[in-house]
Design a protein that fits this description.
Residues 43-57 have a biased composition (Basic residues). Residues 37-57 are annotated as: Disordered. The chain has 57 residues and is mainly alpha-helical. The protein contains two helices and no strands. The protein is elongated and about 60 Å long. 75% of the residues lie in helices and 0% in strands. Helix 1 runs antiparallel to helix 2 (26-46).
Length: 57
């Protein structure tokens, strides 16, 4: 369920950015999207990769 929550939050951030863009507040749009990208980059760095077993023929 966490990934669904993350997807919803990202969607919400994009909708907020679109609303500000329609109003002409481009600096606010950049700020909102920068925060969204920063959150995603932090999650990528903190996640660890799981080593998958290799199949052999």
């Amino acid at each position: 369920m966490k990934s669904l929550r993350d997807l919803f939050n990202r969607f919400f951030d994009y909708m907020v950015a679109i609303s500000f863009a329609e109003a002409g507040e481009f600096d606010t749009v950049r700020e909102v999207l920068r925060e969204t990208n920063r959150d995603r980059q932090t999650k990528r760095v903190s996640s660890r990769q799981v080593k998958r077993p290799q199949m052999r023929a």
